[in-house]
Amino acid sequence: HKEDLELAAVYVSDAQHNRNIFFDTEPTAVRLYLLYNHWLLGVLLYFFILVNLLLAVVEQPALVYLPIWACMLVELCCLSVFSGRLVHYAKVIPRDKFWKDPKNICVLIILLLTLVDMIIYGALKATDNYAVRWSRVLRPLLLVNFTEGRQLRRAFRSIRNALPQILSVFLLFIFSILIFSLMALKLFGKRGLKTNDGRPYFTNFLEVVFDLYVLVTTANSPDIMMPAYNASSFFAVFFIIFILINTYIFMSVFLAVVYNNYKKYLKEEVRQLVRTKRHKMVRAFAILQERHEGWEEPVVSHTSWNQLVRLVQSDLSHAHRELLWSVADHHNQGFIGKLAFVQLADLLNIQVIAVKSRPHPLQRWSPALYLSTPSRWLCRAVKHRVFVMIYDVIILVNAVFIGLDEEDPLIGNSEWFFLSLYLLEILLKLYAVEPRAFYSRHNFWNWFDTIIIVSALVATIINTAMTSVGGYSSRQILDIVFTLRVLRLIRVVDSIKRFRVILNTLIKIGPTMLTFAQLIIVVYYIFAMVGMELFHGKLQFFDSESPGKSSCGNPALQDSSFAKMNYCKNNFNNVVSSFILLVELTVVNHGFTAVTHPSARIFFVLFHIIVVIIIINIFVAFVLEAFFVEY
Amino acid sequence: HKEDLELAAVYVSDAQHNRNIFFDTEPTAVRLYLLYNHWLLGVLLYFFILVNLLLAVVEQPALVYLPIWACMLVELCCLSVFSGRLVHYAKVIPRDKFWKDPKNICVLIILLLTLVDMIIYGALKATDNYAVRWSRVLRPLLLVNFTEGRQLRRAFRSIRNALPQILSVFLLFIFSILIFSLMALKLFGKRGLKTNDGRPYFTNFLEVVFDLYVLVTTANSPDIMMPAYNASSFFAVFFIIFILINTYIFMSVFLAVVYNNYKKYLKEEVRQLVRTKRHKMVRAFAILQERHEGWEEPVVSHTSWNQLVRLVQSDLSHAHRELLWSVADHHNQGFIGKLAFVQLADLLNIQVIAVKSRPHPLQRWSPALYLSTPSRWLCRAVKHRVFVMIYDVIILVNAVFIGLDEEDPLIGNSEWFFLSLYLLEILLKLYAVEPRAFYSRHNFWNWFDTIIIVSALVATIINTAMTSVGGYSSRQILDIVFTLRVLRLIRVVDSIKRFRVILNTLIKIGPTMLTFAQLIIVVYYIFAMVGMELFHGKLQFFDSESPGKSSCGNPALQDSSFAKMNYCKNNFNNVVSSFILLVELTVVNHGFTAVTHPSARIFFVLFHIIVVIIIINIFVAFVLEAFFVEY
Ligand code: NA
User: Fold this and answer.
1) In Å, how far is B386's CA from the nearest CA of chain A?
2) Subunit contact B172:A567, Cβ cutoff 8 A
3) C-alpha angle with apex B523: B517 to B525, nearest 5 degrees?
4) How far apart are alpha carbons B357 and B360 in whole angstroms?
5) Can you tell me whether residue B37 is helix, strand or coil?
6) Can you tell me whether residue A336 is helix, strand or coil?
7) Which of A256, A513, B120, B440 is at a distance of 20 to 30 A from A451, taking alpha carbons?
8) Phi first, then psi: what are they for B194, rounded to 5°?
9) Can you tell me the distance from the alpha carbon of B10 to that of B280, in angstroms, rounded to the nearest whole number?
10) pLDDT, tens only, A437-494
């Protein structure tokens, strides 16, 4: 009976946390499954995935140099952790299910390919040959394909589902660009116009297509239009219609298609989730069910229900458990049917905010003092609107002081004054409000305040100590102090109601934003790896005045506007600069302008299609949806 | 009785065309009202509004020079037409209603101010003083405030309704920029960094705010980041977070707010429209109603209904009218109640697509020939899928020929071949399909084909004639010929089903796009007028190599990147270049970079806020909504 109860508890726990693994029901497998779900193993897996991804920092082309054997050793370590996790998973679920699941196959193939690549790379490097670590592009896929990456897999599935419709619009969009290119070729090609850097203007069809594609991204606007416009004002009409159709209409249609599919798919996923949850709960019910006299349907008794809940969530208070039972058994029969039982998973997820007002620790320590008239008066004052307004004014005055020159000793010392005022505020609030209530999970701003103020205090003390001892202040610590000082000002927004609504929506989006961050890291990482293999060393960044500065160390860019604008650090020479470059390319794809070889354009066009047309639109769709629901 | 019937007919016609003017019901006023609604007067009004707007072309700073007295004369003429229209409107509706309506007051004030401005301007110019025609910014407002601009007024009302929410987000957005600016000032200001053109980097708070605002528009990305990034890779984090929050999140939130309000407001407007329509129909019913024995409720008899419908829509066939009656009187009682009567306006708007297959004119002319076996076979062949496919292939081959060099005589002559093929296609289709059905209103592509092919034929003939007679071909006509040739290729899209769906949605958006075009013209016109007063003559465009070319004729821009990029023609020297510049500023606000005086920045920031944050978002919202509904 104990094993049955444990199995039922696992089902309920799965339903509660939306896990959809259909594990083996043998007792040993169930125990392994419980271990598999342990949060520590999950954290460990993510840690090693992170280490594996961060290897790019120390691998060739490296930001911090580490010998090849050391990188290989770390990577082998990661691979063995991944293999261990996969074997563990294989032992938990039935064998046939394991081999049917594409994500397991995917992980397995990634592990094997990585191993093969490491061997080849090691051998080639040992014999001083040229070698490419091509399996590095596979690393971020581990993030997607391990069971924990459920949210991320959902995002990728939603993209895959939207692809056919996106493709239709995309083909039409390309057709439109081709038509406009042909027209541009015919209209401008024979006029003998020259671009600003003296090349012939719109004479080669493929060049025209590329230039007009870049115009859609607005990266070369209005440069590409100027030669024609300078020849005749009338030609501006061509470019205006082009931008209207391709930049505004088509990009909006892309957003519409992505948004529509995202919404449709999200609904389907939620339906699937509900179904899985119900399925798990029905299984748990089937284990615990018993017959009750005078009832046709099987039921679950209060006793087994109690045992089950105690197993699933041991930290639940007796009162809370009784409350849940009374909700389920609202006819007070001492047993519940299937329908009431299935709701348990959702009931457990409802956070019962303790309505009981716990007494303040100071009150328990000295009731007479805490409940005395001055003390009560202080508590009332702290909770009063005027108190909030006074501190808003303090924050504004502080903002002015921050803006002034901090080398003036008066301004420099004012920092101590403001810091103590902020500390006083937190202490007063802690006096008036029960600390555990003050720091409860949904009190974002209290957490924010405390963390910022305490860190600012620590950093300011360190900075002052360093200045008074060594007579010098560290630039890094000063940066942190300044940043924290300015961040403190954000708090003023929370006291204005119209802003609070918007801000709360943004804060609520936060967790889902993490899934999005993973998605973009997967895509960026793949592009960074490919970009580093293709372009590393093509550009050099020179810190001081050096002869190579005017060409970024590349003769093809000698006196180009790219070098003149000091863009040389936008290169693929290491993983950090690659990531920063990719962010820049997302914002404005100026990479188009730095191309020294036509075929490299494919890389930038592909990046634009995937990141700007698909990923950014999903992000916008997602912010839109959040605001439609919340606001 | 006749006058009653006429009044009822006016009510029904108003309901049918969604007019919501509550006119005087005196017979003379009704007759004036009928005249007021005449399409010719509407067209005349729009023509004079257009003339009034186009005056900017000939006024100082002029594209085409016209003496001041001529401009004034034309404008006076326009003003008298507008006054006439306003007086006409005043005679149509009750006096108290006229003075209560803000749009009439608005038109009146615009007319008076314009007159005052003209007098002052004339007097100042006559005495050779400096004068500004400030009332020109009011001109586009006439487009909004005349009764005909209902759609446009609705768009402006929707913007006004969204303003409070937009303002909340905007203030938060500005707060975010201020916080980031303060942080940037503290982090980068003391480091002694220099921008690419040697100015100190991030040392003045207002400069920082402006630079970061421009970064939101991505117009100065990545230039503004490079000095900090070159100093330390770590600082890129600041800019990445800035762009994430301000460019991506805030801009999406703006879209969400605009979209939400747009949708909400649209629903309210539709409800209002339905209410007005019902109200008009109830009034018409009240006029025609009579008592029928055995019925408590008043009714309208078949006879008066028939007379009414004949007055409202005289071109309706007897059969169609009987069909409508049978729909209304579905119990066949010979009279209808209020409920059935009110539906009439909507019934009249339903386009009954004639199901009856009218015989082909050729069939009537010679049935034996048209219905003979070869003729039937030809008709079947033309309607066959293979026929469409053959022409798709022809179009593709044509595309290749267009891409090739047209100076080759073979290619040049091939045009005639393709033109005759296309003509043949249209003739064959006209043979197979009844011409009136072929050119019915919803057959967009048939109209498109015919217009393009016939114009191409005419242009090609003119071109050939000119070449063979004068031995020279006009560049303008060649441009038209080339454009038409390429446009012909678009047709291929219609034969692919997945594209047709998207394209049909875009075509359906068309008419509403016109309202949007008016909206943008109103805003652009106002900015163009202000811009011309503020900035005209600041930049000069030099066609050939001249000493002023490197500075656009402005010493402040000597050797600036603006002049070097050949942007000199982007100026406010006349209304056409102003409009083109404003379109460019909408796409990428590079105007930010050409500012010679800090206060001029206000103009560009204001333009960005109004056009990009509000107007473009409404456009996107509108395309999104169309696609959500249609696709
Ligand atoms: Na842009």
Assistant:
1) 23
2) no
3) 95
4) 9
5) coil
6) strand
7) A513
8) -125, 145
9) 9
10) 888 777 788 888 899 999 988 988 888 888 888 766 677 777 888 888 888 888 888 8
The CB-side HSE value for B132 (13 A sphere, CA atoms) comes to 11
Cα–Cα distance list, B596 to B224, B513, B535, B538 (Å): 18, 36, 10, 9
Q: What are phi and psi of A200, to 5 degrees?
A: -65, 145
Question: Tokens 């048939």 map to which residue?
Answer: B446
Residue B498, CA distances (Å) to A16, A254, A390, B623 in order: 43, 15, 62, 19
In degrees, rounded to 5, the angle at the alpha carbon of residue B16 between the alpha carbons of residues B101 and B32 is 55
Query: How many Å apart are CA A430 and CA A360, to the nearest integer?
Result: 9
Q: Are A49 and A143 in contact (CB under 8 A)?
A: yes
Q: Please judge whether B565 and A226 are an interchain contact, meaning their C-beta atoms are less than 8 angstroms apart.
A: yes
Question: Is the CB of residue B138 less than 8 Å from the CB of residue B114?
Answer: yes
Please, where are the H alpha helices in B245-384? Answer: 251-288, 302-312, 318-328, 338-342, 344-349, 361-365, 367-370, 373-383
Choose the closest CB to A253 out of B175, B486, B623: B623
More confident residue, B591 or B554: B554
**Using CA atoms, how far apart are residues A420 and B187, in angstroms rounded to an integer?**
23
Output the pLDDT for position B26: 85
Query: Are the C-beta atoms of residues A564 and A558 closer than 8 Å to each other?
Result: no
Residues with Cβ within 8 Å of residue B563, at least 6 apart in sequence = B549, B550, B551, B552, B557
Q: What pLDDT score does A110 carry?
A: 95
The per-type count for chain B, helices as H runs and strands as E runs, is 29, 2
Shortest CA gap B426–chain A (Å): 22
Q: What is the ipTM of this complex?
A: 0.88
pLDDT level of residue B144 (50, 70, 90 thresholds) = confident
Residue B335 phi, psi dihedral angles, 5° rounding:
-150, 160
The string of pLDDT tens digits covering residues A556-609 is: 766 666 667 777 777 888 888 888 888 888 887 666 555 556 677 888 888 888
| Other C-beta atoms lying within 10 Å of the C-beta of residue B356 | 6
B253: which chain A residues are within 8 Å (Cβ-Cβ)?
502, 506, 623, 627
Please name the residues in contact with B428: beta carbons below 8 A apart, sequence gap of 6 or more.
B378, B382
B46/B146 Cα distance (integer angstroms) = 10
C-alpha A73: how far from chain center: 29
- Summarize pLDDT for A384-409 with one digit per residue, the tens: 889 988 998 998 888 888 888 767 77
What residue type is assigned to position A244 of the chain?
L
Closest to B145 measured CA to CA, from B69, B82, B216, B93: B82
Contact predicate B328/B341, CB 8 Å: yes
| Sign for the pseudo-dihedral over CA of B570, B576, B579, B584 | negative
Q: How far is the CA of B250 from the centre of ligand 1 (A)?
A: 15
DSSP class of residue A301 equals: E
The alpha carbons of chain B give a radius of gyration, in whole angstroms, of: 31
User: Do B581 and A236 form a contact (C-beta atoms < 8 A)?
Assistant: no
Residue A617: DSSP 8-state: H
At B506 the pLDDT is: 83
SS3 A607: helix
**Minimal CA separation from B626 to chain A, in Å:** 9
Which of B264, B587, B611 would best serve as a mutation to test chain A binding (most A beta carbons within 10 A)? B587
Contact B230 A543 (CB under 8 A): yes
State how far the Cα of A182 lies from the Cα of A173, in Å rounded to an integer.
14
Rounded to whole angstroms, the Cα distance separating B230 from B7 reads 78
Give residue-wise pLDDT tens across range A324-376: 888 888 888 888 888 888 888 888 777 655 545 677 888 888 888 888 888 88
Q: Please report which residue ranges of B93-200 form alpha helices under DSSP H.
A: 95-100, 102-126, 139-145, 150-188
- Answer positive or negative: Cα dihedral of A432, A434, A436, A438: negative
